[in-house]
Amino acid sequence: MVAVCTVAAIGIAAYLVVLDQEITHRFEGRRWSLPARVYAAPMALYAGLALTPAELVGELRRLGYREARTRGELGVGRYLVSARRVQATLRPFRFADARRPALPIDVRFNAGRVASLMGAYGPLRYARLEPPVIGSFFASHGEDRLVVTPEDTPLLLIETLKVVEDRNFDTHFGFDIKGMIRALWANLRAGGIEQGGSTLTQQLVRSYYLDNRPTIARKVKEVAFAVILDARFEKADLMNAYVNEIFLGQDGARAIHGFGLGSYFYFNKPLFELDAHEIALLVAVINGPSYFNPFRHPERAKQRRNLVLAEMREFALIDQQAFEGALRQPLSLTQTREGGRYYPAFMDLVRLELATDYDRATLSAQGLAIHTTLDPRLQQTAEAAAKATLATLEQARGIPSGTLQVAMVVRASQTGDIQAAVGGRQPGRQGFNRALNAKRPVGSLIKPLVYLAALESGRYSLATPVEDTPFVLDEFDDYAPTNHDGEFHGVVPLVRALGDSLNVASVRVGLDVGLAEVAERLGNVTGRYPPAYPSLILGAYDASPFEVSEFYAVLASGGFSTPAKAVTAVVDVRGETIKRYPIKVEQAADPRTVATLTSALQIAMGHGTGRWSPLADSGVAGKTGTSDDYRDSWFAGYDANSLAVIWIGRDDNQPHGLSGSRGALRLWNSLMAKADIVPALGTESETVSIDYATGLRAMPHCGGTVQVPLLTGQVVRWKPGCEPR
Hints:
37% of the residues lie in helices and 18% in strands. It is of the alpha+beta class. A hairpin with a 5-residue loop joins strand 27 and strand 28 (632-638).
């Protein structure tokens, strides 16, 4: 018998030694999967910026800043508003190009612009707000976290965890018999689960090593693991592991782990900025992240929070005044919960751009910071404009509610930076990304490429007469183009053929410059070379809004190819910039010719299919597009700052009766209603005044005239009665 016991003891001891080595090795070498965090572009403040105090406050609130009542409360993450003035203390942040410490700023406004920008020691040339997180690349198992150091963890949180979850944490050996008995008694008195009997170390073991199956064997193992960890590691190390590991809630497929991320998920601000009532809510959630989910069960969560606050007061972690003030506080949950699902169309572009340099494992585990070009304010404006415009169009045109869909790409005219992307009517929902993947007939959006080829040939100017008269192409199965209005307009100037989007005149021009030329220009942009048929000139070519933006970008940038860019830099977990994504610029067309075409598209806005826009005379250049049977409504417009491509249609490809000017253009009007428009750069050549309808020279007093450059030696006769006086 003694021999049996001896053998058993030796076996148990050997097992414990092996277990000790395994647990210690795993804990010492623990490497949390740290998902890459994706940041929007930071807002830059400078004198002259078009911005109101309300807009700046809105951006600060988006970042989780709180309003101060007096200057004495202007700590980090706080702002103070007064008449035409906003003061704030910006948080420290590691940008891709520099680390910025906490920065006090004083912004004054006048007439809708920033009048001055001051720092603690005088005027500032500019200041950047820290960019908001817009998504993350968490692993397939769904864990997401922001690791915080002991130095970044509030002492109040540490002490509250001990009081509520493990009062003998500093003295027990991994498990606590007294705590188990106390929890059992408290639960019996309450008639339910009010306290847990597990120590923080046991909870850590359960989260890090074991599953949650309620078996005796697992419980014994849990206690053994906890004793080993407690014997091998300092209490501070165990507490820091707990702070970063504990599960605090579920966001769709994403599991929220650790207080660092939990602070952003529930309150949209750093852990060190939390007040007592907010710390109490996070600790309350531990007891049941689903049961006490404050987003779904606010009253239940608040009751649990108040119990935690009561224990904080009982153990003198807060005084009576702070306790009473905390009880009066609402839950104060963020309304802009952080997560990539809120910008799925843009995140698809980020993934596409990163795919050439980083695999999924790297993005989901190495704690990278991805800096991007997204403008959150513009994105929000685009989403709101899309929602409102579709509802208005459906109601006004008798279209069944909810059947119209939308896609939009907004990019910087000169750099290609993608500033906003809308992939559907519900832009915050992950699903089919129409902005990137919906290839639909582009209609007349293709025509500027035809006219660019014509102008580059040197045989056409904007005043060149072209025939908008019927004809039949025998070699293309008796193809006979017609205009949308069913009429023919005779001889018209080139600028009107483009501005009024005349199909017949456009096909004549395209045949003259060469169908293959137009097909090649499209293929060079999209990588898909279409057959060179006359119908191509009228938009018999399927492309996504993203692809359309690529060939319009050549026009918006003045003749240069500036490929779309969603990522600016990648920073590693140590704060070192390991990859930059610079602007790529190559000349793609003659700048003077592109400037002439831009002038034509500005005229198209003022006199042609864009004349319905209230912004028609603001210097923007634009082109509408409509596919056969009114199935697709398009608009592409640009000024010196931005280019926007918009599509409206139906997923079932059924007609909706909206032309480009009656559908997509209206959405663009809403998008740009408050924009600080800078006129696109048109031609600087010497111009003459011609009658838009006929192409004859005419003095401006005749009305309906436009300014166009002429080819060298080109003579245009005067319109009767419109000669110089």
